[in-house]
Write a sequence for this structure.
């Protein structure tokens, strides 16, 4: 009985020590490594690759990666939210399909996990990333590569 | 006569002609015991047919596990399937499976009251510890190798189309198969860390419920902790993080920072748990009525 009580007291003490530690860590332990910079680099590169794939699968002429001039701008929550950490980000990806003068902006709701992997859900324009499927040659239905984008960047 | 732990009279030493080390004898015996366990045999059967079952299930339904990386590609390429299985299962299935063996390997002797019997054989505590710990590690390695092979074969059987990587790039079947194998094997270091943890709990508690249940509870707690936005260094120090390090292999350009940190973390957990287990085991008083 005494042994059990001692064990319970010890467990309580451990929990009591762990809780403030966890709060301390989340509060002021430094960056989570999840910031706009690496996310923008990762998602714009991934988007460009998948855009080329989408065009190829639809039987359209294959654009060159460089000519797309893809760039991204990401923000976590509102501008007042700390721009560091996992959770919901919003990314605007700009690319050029008809020369420098004609930028297109694709919008993504990005759920970033704590390990630097993210799932970006297409939020318009509907013709680019709105539908989960696209129609390939001979009316075959294929997964739309731009509808849901999975990617990862290094947080270490 | 009283014997200090670890110090044995001369007659207990192996005969001059005997070449086999005591630890090796213990190791072989433990492997034999492990291979006869019904839990282990069930795991082996499930490990072999499970991946093919997963492929079959994904084949017959049109829905995709879209909330996991590679999930949306399972119908496009067979090689996406092992990655979905790994991403979904490795962080909790792996630790649970190794704990079933490693969390029991020391405490089963307590349960059956056989410590006195085996310690009076001509094997020292060091040899017993080394043999048992090595057997637990061997099981973890064998399990991971088995799952790597069966999942890869099941994936290849399901289709060898190019698979979309985590950088949006198309990866052809050959390199993709290599990446699948590499990703699976990259989960081995944290799995060995968990094995050491289970061994430690088994040694300290002398109780298989704690030895097996402890790592399972810790796994669940870590799953919740991973959901919190921790600083990067704290995230890297968790033993659950290295299970996800393979994501970097599939990015473009590939990155290995998380994997290398995972090696350091797993090694630290492994060494600390191993040393604590040995210190506790070496000083344990066995066979004295309390």
């Amino acid at each position: 009985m005494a042994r059990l009580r001692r064990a319970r007291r010890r467990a309580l003490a451990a929990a009591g020590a762990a809780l403030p530690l966890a709060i301390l860590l989340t509060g002021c332990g430094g960056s989570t490594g999840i910031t706009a910079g690496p996310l923008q680099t990762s998602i714009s590169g991934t988007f460009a690759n998948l855009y080329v794939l989408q065009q190829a699968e639809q039987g359209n002429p294959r654009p060159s990666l460089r000519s797309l001039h893809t760039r991204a701008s990401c923000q976590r929550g509102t501008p007042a939210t700390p721009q560091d950490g996992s959770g919901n980000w919003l990314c605007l990806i700009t690319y050029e399909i008809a020369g420098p003068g004609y930028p297109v902006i694709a919008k993504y709701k990005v759920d970033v996990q704590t390990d630097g992997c993210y799932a970006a859900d297409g939020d318009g324009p509907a013709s680019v990333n709105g539908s989960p499927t696209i129609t390939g040659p001979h009316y075959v239905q294929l997964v739309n590569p731009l509808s849901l984008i999975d990617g990862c960047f290094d947080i270490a | 006569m009283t014997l200090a732990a670890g110090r044995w009279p001369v007659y207990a030493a192996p005969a001059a002609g005997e070449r086999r080390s005591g630890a090796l004898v213990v190791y072989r015996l433990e492997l034999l015991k492990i291979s006869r366990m019904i839990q282990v045999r069930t795991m082996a059967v499930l490990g072999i047919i499970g991946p093919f079952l997963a492929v079959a299930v994904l084949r017959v339904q049109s829905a995709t596990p879209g909330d996991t990386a590679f999930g949306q590609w399972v119908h496009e390429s067979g090689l996406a399937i092992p990655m979905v299985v790994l991403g979904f299962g490795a962080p909790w299935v792996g630790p649970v499976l190794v704990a079933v063996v490693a969390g029991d390997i020391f405490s089963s002797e307590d349960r059956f009251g056989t410590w006195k019997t085996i310690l009076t054989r001509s094997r020292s505590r060091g040899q017993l510890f080394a043999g048992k710990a090595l057997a637990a590690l061997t099981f973890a390695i064998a399990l991971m190798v088995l799952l790597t092979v069966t999942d890869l074969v099941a994936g290849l059987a399901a289709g060898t189309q190019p698979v979309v990587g985590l950088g949006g790039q198309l990866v052809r079947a050959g390199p993709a198969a290599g990446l699948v194998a590499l990703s699976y094997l990259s989960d081995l270091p944290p799995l060995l860390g968990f094995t050491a943890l289970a061994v430690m709990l088994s040694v300290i508690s002398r109780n298989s419920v704690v030895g097996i249940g402890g790592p399972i509870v810790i796994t669940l707690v870590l799953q919740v902790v991973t959901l919190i936005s921790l600083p990067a260094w704290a995230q890297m120090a968790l033993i659950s993080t290295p299970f996800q390090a393979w994501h970097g292999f599939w990015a473009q350009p590939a990155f290995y920072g998380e994997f290398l940190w995972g090696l350091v973390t797993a090694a630290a957990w492994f060494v600390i748990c191993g040393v604590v287990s040995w210190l506790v085991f070496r000083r344990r008083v066995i066979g004295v009525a309390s």
Notes: Chain B touches chain A at residues 66-67, 69-73, 75-76, 164, 166-170, 225-236, 241, 244, 247-248, 250-252, 255, 257-258, 260-261 (CB under 8 Å).
